[in-house]
Design goal:
213 residues; alpha/beta; Rossmann fold; five-stranded parallel beta sheet; 5 strands; globular
């Protein structure tokens, strides 16, 4: 066997491994009109003043309309019932899905939370929009028990072809200066969330750079 024939398989293996590190995002060719932030109190902006919630801050980072479809206290069970009215009927280009904390606090099993999110994602993707899943963990298993969702959210993102936004609350739940109460961010915390969301979705914004760029 000559040297070239020995090297070729290594290049093929490397190419396969490399391609596996960048899972494809479904509906990157979405022709929808708006970005929708679909979630619970973290999306709604509990503890923030007008204009300080993360969707409002995200609006200053991307051109086009950004809709805040967050409802405080909502679980994935409740979210399923309003996907059509609050998301699909708005002609979404990209939907940023943020749920789980209220499921945890009300005793909804983790597997049911994942199943509900999968149904929500499928409904959105079947209409042609991209989806992004927020991992609500904070990098610490002692804070609200939210780290149980990290692996599930990451796996769900990969399996559904969704953008993954990791550890949304890291550095916020641990820092009193970033919170308005024991669980909700203040203006500084929401600013950090908006920046994390933007950095995760930026590569998929169909040529939409930051405002002013």
């Amino acid at each position: 066997m000559n040297r070239c024939s020995m090297i070729l398989p290594f290049f093929l293996v490397f190419a396969l491994l490399f391609s596996g590190c960048a899972p494809s995002v479904r509906n990157v060719d979405s022709d929808g009109a708006v970005i929708i932030c679909f979630g619970d109190s973290i999306t709604y902006g509990q503890g923030a003043r007008e204009g300080e919630a993360y969707p409002a801050l995200l609006r200053t980072m991307v051109p086009g309309e950004v809709i805040n479809a967050g409802i405080s206290g909502e679980t994935t069970r409740e979210a399923l019932r309003r996907v059509k009215k609050d998301v699909l009927d708005e002609d979404p280009y990209l939907v940023i899905v943020e749920f789980g904390a209220n499921d945890r606090f009300t005793g909804i099993p983790e597997d049911e939370t994942a199943a509900n999110l999968r149904k929500i994602i499928k409904m959105i993707q079947d209409e042609g929009a991209m989806t992004a899943i927020c991992d609500i963990s904070a990098g610490s298993s002692i804070i609200g028990g939210l780290d149980v969702y990290h692996k599930k959210m990451k796996r769900l993102s990969k399996n559904t072809g969704s953008i993954f936004i990791p550890r949304l609350m890291e550095g916020i739940l641990q820092d009193p200066s970033m919170k308005s109460d024991h669980m909700h961010p203040n203006a500084a915390g929401y600013r950090l969330i908006a920046e994390r969301v933007y950095e995760s979705i930026k590569p998929y914004l169909r040529g939409r750079g930051a405002n002013g760029s």
